[in-house]
Write a structure and sequence with these properties.
The complex is a heterodimer of chains A (368) and B (128). Chain A is α+β, with helices and mostly antiparallel strands and 368 residues long. Chain A folds into 3 domains: 14-56 and 147-239, Gyrase A, domain 2 (2-Layer Sandwich); 59-138, Aminomethyltransferase beta-barrel domains (Alpha-Beta Plaits), CATH 3.30.70.1400; 261-359, Beta Barrel (Elongation Factor Tu (Ef-tu), domain 3), CATH 2.40.30. Chain A has helices spanning 14-19, 39-48, 68-75, 123-132, 157-162, 209-220, 230-239, 274-283, and strands at residues 23-27, 30-35, 51-54, 59-64, 88-94, 100-110, 113-118, 139-142, 148-153, 177-182, 185-190, 199-204, 226-228, 287-294, 305-308, 311-322, 327-335, 344-349, 352-359. Chain A has a 6-stranded mixed β-sheet. In chain A, strands 14-17-16-15-18-19 form a 6-stranded antiparallel β-barrel. Chain A is globular, with a radius of gyration of 21 Å. Chain B is of the alpha+beta class and 128 residues long. Chain B has one domain (7-120): RNA polymerase II/Efflux pump adaptor protein, barrel-sandwich hybrid domain (OB fold (Dihydrolipoamide Acetyltransferase, E2P), Beta Barrel). In chain B, 21% of the residues lie in helices and 34% in strands. Chain B is built from 4 helices and 9 strands. In chain B, the strands form 2 sheets. A 6-stranded antiparallel β-sheet of chain B has the order 1-2-3-9-8-5. In chain B, β2 (13-18) and β3 form a beta hairpin. The longest helix of chain B has 12 residues, at 116-127. Classes of the chains: A alpha+beta (368), B alpha+beta (128). The interface between A and B is medium-sized, with 20 and 12 residues.
Chain lengths: 368, 128
């Protein structure tokens, strides 16, 4: 076998994944577990109990300085000026032409200190992008190597993590974070996730990650915790209809098209991409992200063509089986005229048109 | 773990020849690599198939994999239980997870396929 030209990047938990018998894959240059014993069992563990993910490949960018908030607000679509300290915001980084550089989480640490969680494969691009727009008194730092990240997700996530920290977790509201000690290490505890369940994402010093991983698995054993791979992470986020970069969003997709208008605040002042978004809104948006369910036998998957009345009109961005709903679901781009739920469409599955129907998203919403 | 009385392909199918009929399936290695199997697409009874050609597909949550028939002939029986319970392929790939039975048109073909030992050696080199 030919060796890859560049060695894969590894997280501090690589040896643990291998010891657990995970099936490892090359995920954007990272050697990561796609599943341990069974993707389906991992998926159900998160929906019903609790699961633990190594998401240390995710990038972190820190923006500090007197005008840090001005820079953050200038390069992101959401209104970061509305953030309180300890609050988190889902937001977009756009090119001038309105397409996505990335989708990110903005954490406000202090008035002059912002912490961005960004997609692994976009980290360097995001850093360059933000840096290139830094006309402010602010310092941008690519901080990915200083953090490992673990996601504890599921209805018993709080019970599990609480056993390892004196920080009261219940008062941390959704999209809020606190810094505190977990398992003897200084970590950032955020009530966020990419699964559609309650849970926490914790940012930990890389050297402490293996110990914290093992202790979370031990703490969650009584609740039936499972280590979970990227496979379950993808089926879980698809059921919750959360965007995945390079699938639902990329450089040629704008927030209007991706149903992400809610993270765009046009009235907050100028920001990178605003003019293009205003222009597109004036002209009218022509395509939109839509959910579908397969009606016929077959599974619509990423990249498959979507037809209406035999004519190619769109493409599947993400598609596959939904373990929770026991249906085959997906997201696709369609002309706005066909974007209403309940419309018949066909997915081209290896040369055969298979019936599907457009449905409202998210496919799955947890009971609160 | 791969039964001695079967013949194998490099595409990870197996065939068991009894008289003029070949029963085909996918190997333990194939189902393990795919993970949880959720969908199986099989040819119809009466279909005439040719060795090495695609006759259907097996899909896991993550992946789609074509099925190539190891032998030529006419499909005389299809394992209908896989439509409702594709997970049988993970649990019992050499038994109740068989895919189709084929009335052999070229009975000599199976003898040219890999033996269990050859297949195991092949899987060993492929995964290292």
């Amino acid at each position: 076998m030919a060796q890859p030209p560049v060695p894969l990047k590894t997280t501090p938990l690589n040896a643990i994944h291998r010891r657990l018998g995970a099936k490892m894959i090359d995920f954007g240059g990272w050697d990561l577990p796609v599943q341990y014993a069974s993707l389906l069992e991992e998926h159900h563990a998160v929906r019903q109990r609790v699961g633990l993910f190594d998401v240390s490949h995710m990038g972190e960018i820190e923006i500090r300085g007197k005008e840090a908030s001005s820079l953050v607000n200038y390069v992101t679509t959401n209104d970061a000026s509305r953030l309180h300290i300890g609050q988190i915001q889902y937001s977009g980084l756009l090119y001038e032409h309105g397409g996505f550089v990335d989708d990110i989480l903005v954490h406000k640490v202090a008035d002059d200190d912002y912490f961005l969680c960004v997609n692994a494969s976009n980290q360097d691009k995001d850093y360059e992008h933000i840096h290139s727009h830094n006309q402010f008194e602010a310092i941008v730092e690519n901080a990915g190597s200083r953090y490992a990240q673990l996601a504890v997700q599921g209805p018993r996530a709080l019970d599990t993590l609480q056993k390892l920290t004196a920080v009261p977790l219940a008062p941390i509201r959704y999209y809020r974070f606190v810094d505190g000690m977990v398992d003897g290490a200084r970590v950032r505890i955020a009530r966020t996730g990419y699964t559609g369940e309650d849970g926490f994402e914790i940012y930990v010093p890389p050297g402490d990650a293996p110990c914290i991983w093992d202790d979370i698995l031990a703490a969650g054993a009584e609740f039936g915790i499972k280590p979970c791979g990227l496979g379950a992470r993808n089926t879980l986020r698809l059921e919750a209809a959360m965007a995945l970069y390079d699938h639902e969003i990329h450089a040629s997709i704008t927030p209007w098209e991706a149903n992400l208008g809610w993270i765009v605040k046009m009235d907050k002042g100028n920001f990178v991409g605003r003019e293009a978004l205003a222009h597109q809104k004036d002209r009218g948006v022509t395509r939109r992200l839509v959910g579908f369910e397969m009606a016929g036998r077959g599974i619509g998957r990423d990249g498959y063509e979507v037809c209406i009345d035999g004519l190619g009109t769109g493409w599947v961005t993400s598609g596959g089986p939904s373990p929770t709903l026991n249906k085959n679901i997906g997201l696709c781009y369609l002309p706005c005229a066909h974007a209403e739920a309940g419309g018949p469409i066909q997915i081209m599955v290896r040369g055969q048109a298979v019936d599907a129907v457009t449905v409202p998203i998210p496919f799955y919403k947890r009971k609160r | 773990m791969d039964p001695e009385n079967l013949r194998y392909t490099k595409e990870h199918e197996w065939v068991r020849v009894e008289g003029d009929t070949g029963t085909i399936g996918i190997t333990f290695h194939a189902q393990k690599e795919l993970g949880d199997i959720v969908y199986v697409d099989l040819p119809k009874q009466g279909a005439v198939v040719q060795q090495g050609k695609t006759i259907g597909s097996v899909e896991s949550v993550k992946a789609v994999s074509d099925i190539y028939t190891p032998v030529s002939g006419e499909v005389v029986e299809v394992n209908g239980s896989l439509v409702e319970s594709p997970e049988i392929l993970n649990k019992d790939p050499y038994g109740s997870g068989w895919l189709v039975k084929i009335k052999l048109s070229e009975p000599g073909e199976a003898g040219q396929l890999l033996t269990a030992a050859e297949y195991q050696a092949y899987v060993g080199t492929e995964s290292s």
